[in-house]
Amino acid sequence: MQQLPYLSLITFLPVIGLILILFLPKKNDKQVKYIAIFFTGLQVVLAGILWNAYNYAAGGINDPKSFQFVEKFTWIQFWGGDWLGTVKIDYFLGIDGLSMPMVMLTALISFIAAISSWSINKSVKGYFALFLLLDTGMMGVFVALDFFLFYVFWELMLLPMYFLIGIWGGPRKEYAAIKFFIYTLLGSVFILLAIIGLYLSAKVPLGDGTQVFTFNMLELMNPKNYLQDGILSAVNPSNLRFLAFIALFVGFAIKIPMFPFHTWLPDAHVEAPTPISVILAGVLLKMGTYGILRINYPIFPDVTVSLVWWIALFGMINIIYGALCAMAQKDFKKLIAYSSVSHMGFVMLGMASLTTVGVAGAVLQMFNHGTITAMLFLIVGVLYDRTHTRGLDDFGGMANQMPVYTGFVTVAFFAAIGLPGLSGFISEAFVFLGGFSNGVTRVLTVISTLGILLGAGYMLWTLQRVFLGNLNEKWNALTDLDTREYVMFIPLTIIIILLGVYPSLMLDIMNSSVNSLVKFLTVAKTSYTSIGF
Amino acid sequence: MVINTIFNSFHLIGPEIAVALLLLAVVIFDLAFPKNKKFLPWLTITGIIVAGFLTVKQYSLESGFVFESGNTQGLIVIDNFAFFFKLLILGVSLLIILFSVSSEELKNCYDRAGEYYTLITGMILGMFFMVSTVDLITLYISIELVSFSSYVLAGFIKKSKRSSEAGLKYIIYGAVASGIMLFGISLVFGYTGTTNFYQINHIVVHSLSPDFLLSLAFILIFVGFGYKISAVPFHFWTPDVYEGAPTTITAYLSVASKAAGFALLIRFVKIIFFTGIDENGYWILSKAFNWSYLLIIISVLTMTVGNFAALWQNNVKRMLAYSSIAHAGYMLAALTMLSEQGLLAIVVYFVVYGLTNLGAFYIVLLIHNKTGSEEIDDYDGLGYQMPLMGVAMTILLVSLTGLPPTAGFIGKLYVFISILDAPHYTLAVIVALNSVVSLYYYVRIIKHLYLNNPKVEREFTFPVTQTILVLVLTIPVIILGLYFGPLLEMGKVSLRMFGF
Fold it and tell me: Which residue among A150, B46, B212, B356 is least crowded, i.e. fewest CB within 10 A of its CB?
């Protein structure tokens, strides 16, 4: 059946919106906002269609045949002479169980962030143009299966993000924006070096009998494609594979952000406008862990297997350190930012377990953290819009003044703590199950459980300081949520509760991919040993 | 006999003859019609187009010597390598003349316009010889031809102190560098008894170990090249000259003159030391001198000094001057690999860098036209006051940083590919870290354009022609970033040098 190029559509829809916005005459702020919301909404619909048509049995990961909605065209092909060989780059999109949840998350969070951007009043046209460009970049990262394309999308996000923080941000916006930019670029140049190293190490047949260097991620996952003397050869492995793994890992870890590369995050979050914080925490951080699962794991299974303890260690540090930092914050938004650091640690711990349960927990945690943190940042935004302060000690007794709001807050907070019945519980439980069942990560997992306790500590303390107790006289006139805010909160709340009671909805999607990934790593462990590891 | 040789070679130097005639035509026109100076740029452009046409016609010719007779080998050659650089130089010159038409700075010297276009034509002629010379004497003369024209052009705005200072500094540095180079050349001649690259090659090929005298001679000659491509530590003139010279000339020096310098350096290294080429595209060079060693040190120094010095600049032109030093460093890094891949990377990089840098300088020039300043603080909020120029500048700066989806990324990508193919990890990491450093100062301009609030409320309008010119430079930067097949195709074709 000839199907529509869904993935190209979902990736480039925002660009169409962007062009429309640019051609709209000035002073049409409302129309600009409607266009942005319409196009991000359309993305959600498309993501829904993909979800509906998704084949649960297909594994993906390293098997090109079981990727779905694949679009593959030759983008650039040229014969460069004897010593250069053929240069061939594909436009190659496809999704499997790892990317499907992320595509859904990106569409959803972008839509909600677009609604939340309604309150932006400064250069509206520019804001939404950049917002939509950012959206394209994010979606592209999750659907690209060619390294070159992946890298283009990865870098495409940087500039819009810089502007979105730098122009529409808070008082120290310039510092935060450039810090974000430089940190992520530092990470991505190392990614680029590793990509080029891989590119120069493997050759695939072109069909006419010649061999050609490739940027195709799936081909790079096959050890047979590597050249004997390739610098990152899997056939004849050297320590350089470790270095390349670490280069990629650091590049992705900066995005997660992993301790000690996390310092850009609190700054960026505090200064960014609410919708951008939502995107940053909801989607951007996931790219780091997604990159590790999609690229580091299957391309360097040998190195991965030998380094999982370290990944788990850094996961543990993230969990504990993030939670402790969060506890010390006096700024509501900074607290949420550090809680993100802590929660992303769970993802790393789950990944490191190399068990189906743990990895599934990690992917699920990526989705759940996306929705929960998005909601937490919206919560801070609601309060900040009304009071223009984020100091935790400036509040108190909000529960009486804004009861409905407090209701939503409670759901989000308890989900973040990991209360059974809400989505956060399932993923954290899976992560711990996985981590505990693997002997290598067992001790670290046990220590990490402390994070839950600390998480409950800072979350409940915040709840108490802001929402319980006596109402501060200043805030007598605060109003409860308006319709727009309901529109943002209700879908997120529904998802949080739904995935709390019926996680299979998400788990079934990723199940066979996670299985393939874990199986691939376990098999690689033995097969790589046989060829010299 | 000699006359015959010259006649036989005429059709091979068609473009050079055209440029020389153009030079005369400009001078005569200027003298004959002193009232009609506004036609001068168009006359020059016509001449450049004719020269371009003649150059394109040469593409089908066999590569070979010009002025060859009996056992005297020629002074210049025609081959694809020269062909590529000639077209690049003509294209850049064409754009520079269009820039000059819209420059307010040059309006003050309107009565000397004839001089200006004559000197530019002189530079074109010099660079044509630079990219095709295979003889030490022609090498020296062509470098001097380019240099003398550029000294005068750098100090062209006599009333501006900075411009005069630029001219003077340039000539002093230039004189010292070319003196040292000439000394090196004399040593080589004394050692080998010939000035022809190919004949020197025959002698040098047989060296099995580095020779002290020859090494010294080549280092001395390299000083001249280093000065022309503004490699550290021969770069001291660059910031002052680039800042003081008229912006059009700054742009010209930073692209065309640098390209010619690189072409000459590459030809010099490749032809004189060539002994063979292996199946992976690496040159097997004579052991007489270890180029790789020297070039690595120079390239690391060049990019690092360029980038770090640029961090502290508050004058945009000066910042771009340092950034152009850094870019020379990246290209040298590709050259250090002494391979066809590295050469391809340089050729691709030059096209990309030329487009981008010219665009950036043009916007600096347009902003100077309106505000009379190149200080970065005066750029505050300009992005809102000139939306199209702001966006174009942002794209160009992103391309200079080397981020996708702009052409700058493709240039960087091939530099990295050539370095990692060798493989030379440390150098790759140094280049990578350098591009992160460069991000900071490029983004600083973007920050002033957009993140800072404008000091004065004003609106700018630009004539359609200027807007089109900006678009002509910016749109290809995006297109080549997304579809760079043609760029590689062109690069591959341009690598063929006569003799191999």
Answer: B212
